[in-house]
Amino acid sequence: MKLKNSLLSKYLLIILLAMIVLPVSFPLISLLFYLPAQNFDIEGIPNQYQSGTDLEKMWHSEAEKLAGATDDQINNRLLELKAKYKKADLFWVDESGTTRLKLPETMNLPDQWSPGQTIDFMKKSYDADPFTIVTFIGSNQNEGFMVFQVKRAEMKSTGQTIQEKYDYVMVIGMLLILALFVFVSWVFFYKIRKRLLRLQEAMARPANNGIPGKIEIDKLDEIGRLEEAFNDMVTQLETSRLREQEEEELRKQLIANLSHDLRTPLTTIRGHAYRLKNESLSETGLESVKLIDQKIGYVGELIENLLSYTLLSAGKYPFKPEHTDIVRFARTSVAAWYPVFERAKFEIVAEFPEQAITWYVDPQWLQRILDNLFQNVLRHAAAGKYIKIAMNERESSLIITDHGPGVDAGSEGKGAGVGLSIVALMAREMKLDWKLDSSETGTIITLKPKE
Q1: Mind listing the pLDDT tens digit for each residue in 160-216?
Q2: For residues 289 and 343, is the Cβ–Cβ distance under 8 A?
Q3: N- to C-terminal Cα distance for the chain?
Q4: Regarding the domain delimited by 208-317, which CATH topology (the fold level of the hierarchy) does it fall under?
Q5: Cβ contacts of residue 360 below 8 Å, gap of 6+?
Q6: Which of 51, 167, 222, 337 is 20 to 30 A from residue 66's alpha carbon, by CA?
Q7: Prior bond of 27 cis (ω within 30°)
Q8: Could you report the per-residue pLDDT of 24-75, keeping only the tens digit for each?
Q9: Is 318-449 in the same CATH topology as 52-156?
Q10: Residue 146 and residue 354: Cα distance in Å, rounded?
Q11: What is each CA distance from 233 to 19, 210, 229, 241, in whole angstroms?
Q12: Where are the domains of the chain?
């Protein structure tokens, strides 16, 4: 079964057949082409002119039978022979040298033959074209002679004619057989190429879920086994995708549940921390309560970011874009964060143009992006004590710059970067380009609409 379904065995069979057929083709063409036509004319009738010996025997026999015949009897017999041998020219001359009958009448012959003319005619006719037979009527020379002439071309069979005129027919036959072998090889490889292209197309044009569709297997040869392996891979990908989707749904549900369940105890802890502030505590105790309140706020922000990230990934975060004056919006956002940065002793620089710059965004999403970016500067770039918020009017871009140690440097409270992931997701949905350039001397974040 392996040999039967092997492309290699099939092509070796083609080569083997070619090696067998090519040497046999030469005698085969001879048998099929030349021999059937060797003794027949074009109409398939036996060629009665082919044998000169037979014609001589026939003509001499007819002359002997006409011994003592009258002129009319001789004429009638020649007419009968002309009807039988239509391609031959016949005539006879009587004992006085007079031409009596010419078949056909258009033959260019002397009306009266002299001995010299007769001898000259016989001399020129010997081994010449047309083939000529001269015989005396009867058994002696006293009754005249009769002549039978036929063109030597008419004495050749169709096969001989073709063989003489078309000596290259064997070469043509061999080339035709070779062309047949090339054609069969081309068909063989064309089908292989077609199947490979179908497999390539299936791999290059995945379905909506990003996984290629299965292909139909026609044959169980090497390509068929490759197609079978491809279908198995597709099945495994589909199974893996389903498992991944199930795990993703479970993860999102877990994060959502944890976010919801952690809010209540965090609120309770924060309430008790607030009550402790109003109690008589030492300075160390007050510092601890303050630190507890800060960490609770940080955990609350993480929970909110996780919940927002989950909703964004699932496409369930409310999205209501509108035309927004980004200059006015940024001023308002900076004004809201100004006391926070001022309390942290930041140098705050704000540069905005006078004219409005409009973006088509969701204001709540954009506020969440700015809040996350400002919170990121406050938490991770506090060592630089610098923040600059500016609008580039020519490029319609919003630029936030700090002098922190950069995103690659470690900082207190550095997490998994969920806040920046939310920025990336929201910017993509609102068709905004955002770029982060960071080094040990600071970070520049640029936000602008896609072109």
Answers
A1: 655 555 556 667 777 787 788 888 888 888 888 888 888 888 877 776 667 777 878
A2: no
A3: 61
A4: Helix Hairpins (1.10.287)
A5: 321, 322, 323, 324, 430, 431, 449
A6: 51
A7: no
A8: 766 666 665 555 545 445 444 567 888 888 899 999 999 999 988 899 999 9
A9: no
A10: 132
A11: 41, 13, 6, 12
A12: 7-43+162-196, 52-156, 208-317, 318-449
- Which residues 6+ apart lie within 8 Å of 67 measured at CB? 137, 138, 139, 143
What is the Cα–Cα distance from 221 to 48, expressed in whole angstroms? 60
CA angle 241-242-248, nearest 5°? Answer: 85
Q: Residue 27 is encoded by which pair of tokens?
A: 């005698």
Residue with tokens 């035709």: 176
- DSSP label at 112? B
Task: Record the tokens describing residue 397, joined without a space.
Answer: 């871009």
Looking at this protein, which amino acid is placed at residue 279?
Answer: E
Distance in angstroms (rounded) separating the CA atoms of residues 335 and 352 = 13
The verdict on domain 318-449 having CATH code 1.10.3860.10 is no
Reading the block at residue 29, the tokens are 């063409």
For the domain spanning 52-156, the CATH number is: 3.30.450
Task: Return the H-helix or E-strand segment holding 347.
Answer: strand 347-351
